[in-house]
Amino acid sequence: MAELGQISLYLVTAAMTAYLIATIAFAIDFSRLAADRPSRVSRTADARELVSAGVADAPVVAARPVADAPLPPVRRAAAIGQSTFTVAVLMLVAGVVTRGFAAGRVPWANMYEFTTVSVVVASVVFLGIQRRRDVRFLGTFISLFALLALFLALAVLYTDPTAVQPALQSYWLVIHVAIATSGMGVFAVAATVSGLQLAKDRAIGRGTQGRILSSLPTSADLERLAFRINAVGFVLWTFVLISGAIWAEHAWGRYWGWDAKEVWSFVIWVVYAAYLHARSTRGWEGRRAAWFSVAGFASILINYYVVNLFVNSLHSYSGV
Amino acid sequence: MSAGYRPEGLVSGDDPERPDGDSTDTTRPTAQAPAPGPVGFGPVAWLRWTWRQLTSMRVALLLLLLLAVVALPGTFFPQRPQDPARVAQYYLDNPSLAPVLERWGLFDVFASPWFSAVYLLLFLSLVGCIVPRSLDHIKALRRPPPAAPSRFTRFPVRDAFASPVARDEAVATATTALKGYRLRRTDGADGAVTTLSAERGYTRESGNIVFHLALVGLLIAVGYGTFVHYRGQVIVVEGDTFANSQVQYDSFESGPWFDEGGLEPFRMRLDRFTSAFDEVSGQAADFRAEVTVTEPDGDEQPETIRVNHPLRTGGASVYLMGNGFAPDVTVTDAEGNVGFSGPVPFVIVDQATYDSRGVIKVPDTQVGDQIGLSGVFLPTAVVDPASDTAFSISPEPNEPLLVLDVWYGNLGLDDGVPQNVYQLDTQAMQQVRAPGPDGEDAPVRVVVAPGQTVDLPDGLGTITFNDLPRYVGLDLRYDPTLPWVLTFALLALAGLSASLFLPRRRVFVRIGQDEGGRTVVTAAALARGDDPGLERELTRVLEPLRPAVGKTDQDRMNQETGQAPDRQQDEGARRG
Ligand code: HEM
């Protein structure tokens, strides 16, 4: 079993190396984006004007503004980034699985393991979106995030694979914690998108959109993308609260006790509820809503690192 | 940030028509730009104005934010209900600050007036918001979809083409394609133009309403639970029986509406307790209490209670919250009369080694003073002769040993003041001391292993270590609202998912003829909220009407390779 744990460690370290390469490749691509791509905003706007002029009551060609847009240029660095990123995820998944076998249980029972699983989820969400639309501009940030999180996990949070204490021996561990870690991964991606939206918005506000920022999709697109991801995250987090309460009822005899961890999870939920509300409140859409998305993820990080490591809590399963 | 700032197209202010018409306008309260102050004077005007403010989206949002903020002090300061010991410690560490914090409720944030005020206001706002919305929605459910506007030019997703399909057939085809939609058909005066208004996805709004109402239900259920619940803690030694009545509990707490007669009189005997520990890490691996439950009707049932697996009985749940050893001892007085006999639970002070502390009180001595013994129980004792200390190295009872200090005098049990069973009140007692090996006065320790009988110093009597049963700490909870809480929570989850992921769409299809008698199709689609699939949906509906050549190979390819969403993304100014 000890050897398996060692293999898992090698795999995770290897994944980190791959993430590092992916970060660099994506960053190179990112810095070249602006030079290669015409601005999407103006293209769309032109197309729209055309259409508005054309459609009267007479039959005309449909409102399909950009169907005939030129094919995007080949982006070699991005392609390298994406393949090394995929390799990194595969190795990390292998690392997580071997860890599970080494410990003889599901591989998400302490902070080191949560981190690895969260990184897997964030990476898979990124790759999943990438399958449907081009979001390689996110690659730099996601792989950098993965790299940092894994580094912290190995340097600070690492514990040897062992069995877990009785309070954690429950299928609720499997469900609740799996969803919580997934939720964190999902929110991480959304917060990255919102962060880019804010950066872009700010630059537009100042009238100094740099080359790189102007190559990103419009703020509106980023906003919608962030919303779709956050919506998934919010449903997951709602389930985290419910399943956590059920588990707490089984293990501690009360479903909600305002333990530090529970307070922060609640705060996170409320912040994201506020985010969803902000999106449909006049004067709060767009940039302000994006701040909520970022604040929500900040609360997640606090809940994860600060509460787990520094606050006295019933949920002291950090294993550190 | 300037008021009304809106990054491009997040919410297009100039929607041709809100998809939900006037019936369920989500932003209604703020959208109609509430007056800066009440219209007119007098309390009624003020009340109305306050109510409109309270039920506006902006205030709801601010209250949500406020709720997040006011919850935070609960993690900065120790909370009495969760950890009274740390509050006491805080008082010692910050003697001047603590009373101030106390006055502001910061040691019990979640029961404080200001926390309650925020969530009650929020829920008031919620009710004020959701009730009219629900009524509107019920009306909308009964109405056919709204009539189509005369022109579609302002819809971001639209289409127009000449169709090879004959007019009447085209209407029939479009009607079929709109299966699942609620339809309203309008035929033009001359019979030449037919307009189909179609709407689907009312569940989205229903889900939103269910979600919000479920939150109200959740709050009510939780609140009711705090009024009728009870909770008791008790320690039961192997072989002993516990009867569910208030006097049997070591500690008992209940809500104001709790009915004492409502305790179901079941009984429970602890037959056996076993524990297992991980050999490598020494961490606890399993605890289980085997019990026999006797129902009020006399029915006997063997059961097992484990961590994470409470026993559900008589409407209450029994949780295994702690365990330990309860050495069974007999203490005699100087003349050999039994002064005390029975198991004494010792409290674990070190979870890794089960070093435990405890007190044996011997009140019924017939000669001499009462006797008190206080000290440690060590499951696997190692005695270090050099320092004359003993400690345990394992939680398993491999080398059990009691190491006790001896006191005599008055235990103070007759004062009528309840005493902590784990502490000796030494006010009226004296400790037996003697010169140690180094000549200094030191407490005399009695060391006794199972099966042994040892003389107490100064001829006070003897102590016999008879047996080593284990005990469990049980927590009994009764809260009849649990199923309701769970139901509302799950309803909220379901409603939320419906409200976020089910699309609500309107599709308008107008079919007419041009001068040449060709069928002309114009169509538009509109969604509520964010809907990446809207354009695809319109394409799907119109597909059978489209001329074969009108559909280019490029289109087909795009669809097959799943490029459509990418195209959508470029459609910058769709409604957010
Ligand atoms: C306990 C307090 C509340 C919570 C936790 C809460 C939570 C939520 C959540 C998570 C959503 C997103 C679901 C969706 O987008 O369909 C939502 C939507 C909504 N909430 Fe609330 N809400 C609360 C109070 C209120 C109040 C007081 C109002 C009225 C002023 C309100 C009005 C709305 C509206 C109109 C939507 C729909 C927004 C849309 O369609 O995009 N909510 N709420």
UniProtKB/TrEMBL annotation, chain A:
<feature type="domain" description="Cytochrome c assembly protein">
    <location>
        <begin position="108"/>
        <end position="315"/>
    </location>
</feature>
<feature type="transmembrane region" description="Helical">
    <location>
        <begin position="171"/>
        <end position="196"/>
    </location>
</feature>
<dbReference type="InterPro" id="IPR017562">
    <property type="entry name" value="Cyt_c_biogenesis_CcsA"/>
</dbReference>
<feature type="transmembrane region" description="Helical">
    <location>
        <begin position="108"/>
        <end position="129"/>
    </location>
</feature>
<feature type="transmembrane region" description="Helical">
    <location>
        <begin position="225"/>
        <end position="248"/>
    </location>
</feature>
<feature type="transmembrane region" description="Helical">
    <location>
        <begin position="263"/>
        <end position="278"/>
    </location>
</feature>
<feature type="transmembrane region" description="Helical">
    <location>
        <begin position="85"/>
        <end position="102"/>
    </location>
</feature>
<dbReference type="InterPro" id="IPR045062">
    <property type="entry name" value="Cyt_c_biogenesis_CcsA/CcmC"/>
</dbReference>
<dbReference type="GO" id="GO:0020037">
    <property type="term" value="F:heme binding"/>
</dbReference>
<dbReference type="GO" id="GO:0017004">
    <property type="term" value="P:cytochrome complex assembly"/>
</dbReference>
<keyword id="KW-0201">Cytochrome c-type biogenesis</keyword>
<keyword id="KW-0812">Transmembrane</keyword>
<dbReference type="Pfam" id="PF01578">
    <property type="entry name" value="Cytochrom_C_asm"/>
</dbReference>
<feature type="transmembrane region" description="Helical">
    <location>
        <begin position="6"/>
        <end position="30"/>
    </location>
</feature>
<keyword id="KW-1133">Transmembrane helix</keyword>
<feature type="transmembrane region" description="Helical">
    <location>
        <begin position="290"/>
        <end position="311"/>
    </location>
</feature>
<protein>
    <submittedName>
        <fullName>Cytochrome c-type biogenesis protein CcsA/ResC</fullName>
    </submittedName>
</protein>
<dbReference type="GO" id="GO:0005886">
    <property type="term" value="C:plasma membrane"/>
</dbReference>
<feature type="transmembrane region" description="Helical">
    <location>
        <begin position="141"/>
        <end position="159"/>
    </location>
</feature>
<dbReference type="InterPro" id="IPR002541">
    <property type="entry name" value="Cyt_c_assembly"/>
</dbReference>
<keyword id="KW-0472">Membrane</keyword>
TrEMBL record, chain B:
<feature type="domain" description="ResB-like">
    <location>
        <begin position="57"/>
        <end position="538"/>
    </location>
</feature>
<feature type="compositionally biased region" description="Basic and acidic residues">
    <location>
        <begin position="567"/>
        <end position="576"/>
    </location>
</feature>
<dbReference type="InterPro" id="IPR007816">
    <property type="entry name" value="ResB-like_domain"/>
</dbReference>
<feature type="transmembrane region" description="Helical">
    <location>
        <begin position="209"/>
        <end position="230"/>
    </location>
</feature>
<keyword id="KW-1133">Transmembrane helix</keyword>
<protein>
    <submittedName>
        <fullName>Ccs1/ResB-related putative cytochrome C-type biogenesis protein</fullName>
    </submittedName>
</protein>
<dbReference type="GO" id="GO:0017004">
    <property type="term" value="P:cytochrome complex assembly"/>
</dbReference>
<feature type="region of interest" description="Disordered">
    <location>
        <begin position="543"/>
        <end position="576"/>
    </location>
</feature>
<keyword id="KW-0812">Transmembrane</keyword>
<feature type="region of interest" description="Disordered">
    <location>
        <begin position="1"/>
        <end position="37"/>
    </location>
</feature>
<feature type="transmembrane region" description="Helical">
    <location>
        <begin position="59"/>
        <end position="77"/>
    </location>
</feature>
<keyword id="KW-0201">Cytochrome c-type biogenesis</keyword>
<feature type="transmembrane region" description="Helical">
    <location>
        <begin position="114"/>
        <end position="135"/>
    </location>
</feature>
<dbReference type="InterPro" id="IPR023494">
    <property type="entry name" value="Cyt_c_bgen_Ccs1/CcsB/ResB"/>
</dbReference>
<feature type="transmembrane region" description="Helical">
    <location>
        <begin position="482"/>
        <end position="502"/>
    </location>
</feature>
<dbReference type="Pfam" id="PF05140">
    <property type="entry name" value="ResB"/>
</dbReference>
<keyword id="KW-0472">Membrane</keyword>
<dbReference type="GO" id="GO:0016020">
    <property type="term" value="C:membrane"/>
</dbReference>
